[in-house]
Amino acid sequence: MLPALGLFLLTLVAYLPALGNGFVWDDDDYVTANETLRSLAGLGRIWLEPGAVPQYYPLTFTSLWLNYQIAGAAPFGYHLVNVLLHATSAVLLWRVLRALAVPGALLAAALFAVHPVHVESVAWATERKNTLSGVLYRGSMLTYLRFAGFGADRGDRSRAGDVGRVATWALALALFLLGLLAKTVVCTLPAALLLLL
Q1: 175, 181 in Cβ contact below 8 A?
Q2: Of 22, 97, 152, 172, which residue is the least packed, with the fewest Cβ within 10 Å?
Q3: Dihedral in degrees, nearest 10, Cα atoms 159, 94, 134, 162
Q4: Residue 118 contacts residue 171 (beta carbons within 8 Å)
Q5: Is the pLDDT of residue 101 over 50?
Q6: Given pLDDT bands bounded at 50, 70 and 90, which one contains residue 44?
């Protein structure tokens, strides 16, 4: 628990400057001028009308819709959610690497958390699709690895029983499907899991 908390806090501290950012580039299309974020009818359009938003990522736009309902078009909330999602993703990566018994898992996750390559995704409101899909991708991967017996002793796996195993598999599948609704690049997950197996 302590390593996860430390990793989460490290990420928050590294991205504190992003919380003061404004909107840039296509944030107008995604947030400030996006009419679908303003009403319940807009939420329906996000899900049911391809072309209502710049890309058909309905879960991503639903999260932006929720942001708008809570705080309007103030950029702070959008950046805060992206930072929190990235911090969660770093913790999930550490858990995945630990389940795979990768040496230096915590260091690798810490490097992932603060590496400059992620600044664009974390500090740019429009890139919510990356931070949200990353959490769902890693959450699905970790859950599937648990289902497949990685990181658990065999006794735990047999005690879970068939119902527990089916529930774990169903959760992994649900997270995968939600990830696809956040960003379609999540479709690479089955291939990644196949390689790991």
Answers
A1: no
A2: 22
A3: -10
A4: no
A5: yes
A6: very high
Residue-wise pLDDT tens digits, 121-133: 899 999 999 999 9
- Mean pLDDT value of segment 10-38: 92
CA distance 137 to 56: 18
Cβ of 16: how many Cβ atoms within 10 Å? 10
User: Measured between alpha carbons, how far is residue 173 from residues 53, 105, 136, 195 in Å?
Assistant: 26, 25, 10, 17
Return the structure tokens found at 95. 């858990």
Q: Which residues of 89-124 are buried (b: 16+ CB within 10 A; e: fewer)?
A: bbbbbbbbbbbeeeeebeebbbebbbeeebbebbbb
CA atoms within 13 A of residue 179's CA, in its CB half-sphere: 24
Contact yes or no for 192/172 (Cβ under 8 A): no
CA pair distance 131, 8, nearest whole angstrom: 14
